[in-house]
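so im writing up the methods section and need the YuxK protein record in one place, dumping it here so i stop losing it
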Amino acid sequence: MHPVILFDGVCNFCDASVQFILNRDPNETFHFASLQSEAGQELLKKYSVRDDVDSMILIENDKVYYKLAAALRISRHLRGAWKLLYLFMIVPAPIRNIVYDLIARNRYKWFGQKESCMLPPPNVRKRFL
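--- predicted struct ---
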């Protein structure tokens, strides 16, 4: 099973992050589901994700990763020097997540939001659940 990235489908920053990953994932490692979608809701239930979690979530090998742990694990699979970001895993999670939490709390205010989730382009649609 491919790792699945759950993301906030109405968040402009989250949408840009998904586009960033798509453009740097030549092996098509990741599949995607918005938190608002039926597939996303089913995965949240299956993995017992708390209702108050609305950040990026990575499900990989039947384990759930949140916040910067998810982003850094994703970076390991991306083309180019992005793999090096995984080295930040040595930083304790509470410290790593300070900046992540600040951006997550303010993402709608700083980057805006959409009325609905994006419709993926045909060439990547198969990677969206």
